[in-house]
Write a structure and sequence with these properties.
- The protein has a single domain (4-139), classed as Four Helix Bundle (Hemerythrin (Met), subunit A).
- The protein has helices at residues 4-27, 34-57, 82-98, 103-129, 131-139.
- The protein has 142 residues and is mostly helical.
Length: 142
C-alpha cells in the first residue's frame, strides 16, 4: 500500500538510507577494496533490515516506547529489536566504507543507547502484555 504514512515510515527512509550509502561509497577513494565492498554490503543489509522491520511493525511503530500490540511475525519472530540491530549493521558498514577506525567508538555508544532503549521498551511491553511478552522474549534474541 502506498499511502502517505507508508511512504513516510517505510519508503522514504529506505531511499534516504540507500542514497546515503551510495554517496559515501562513491566518495570513497578508488580503487575500492574488498573491505569497502563488504562495508557496502553491510550498509545495504542494515537499511533493508530496518525497512523490513518498520514495514512489519506497521501502525505499531513509534519513536517512544508504546505498547499498541505485540508484533511477533516476520523478522520479529527471531529478533525483538531488529530496527536497532539493523541500524547498528548499517552504521558498521558505513564505518568500514570510510575506513576511520575511531568511529567504532561512536558505534559502541550507539549500541549502549540501543540496549537502554530496548530495556525501556521491554518494560512497557511486559507491563501491557505480561506472560505473553515474557514467552515471546524467551523465544527471541535481543
Amino acid at each position: 500500500m502506498l499511502d502517505a504514512k507508508t511512504i513516510a515510515k517505510v519508503w522514504l527512509p529506505l531511499v534516504t538510507g540507500l542514497g546515503a550509502v551510495c554517496v559515501l561509497f562513491h566518495q570513497a577513494r578508488p580503487p575500492r577494496s574488498p573491505v569497502q565492498w563488504l562495508g557496502l554490503a553491510l550498509s545495504v543489509l542494515g537499511v533493508i533490515g530496518a525497512t523490513v522491520s518498520r514495514w512489519t511493525l506497521g501502525s505499531s511503530f513509534s519513536i517512544t516506547p508504546q505498547a499498541r500490540r505485540l508484533v511477533t511475525r516476520g523478522i520479529y519472530s527471531r529478533l525483538r529489536n531488529p530496527i536497532y540491530v539493523s541500524g547498528c549493521i548499517f552504521i558498521a558498514g558505513l564505518i568500514v566504507i570510510v575506513g576511520k577506525p575511531y568511529l567504532w567508538i561512536a558505534l559502541a555508544a550507539v549500541v549502549v543507547m540501543q540496549v537502554i532503549r530496548a530495556r525501556k521498551e521491554a518494560r512497557v511491553l511486559e507491563a501491557k502484555f505480561g506472560d505473553e511478552y515474557r514467552r515471546y522474549r524467551q523465544q527471541t534474541w535481543f
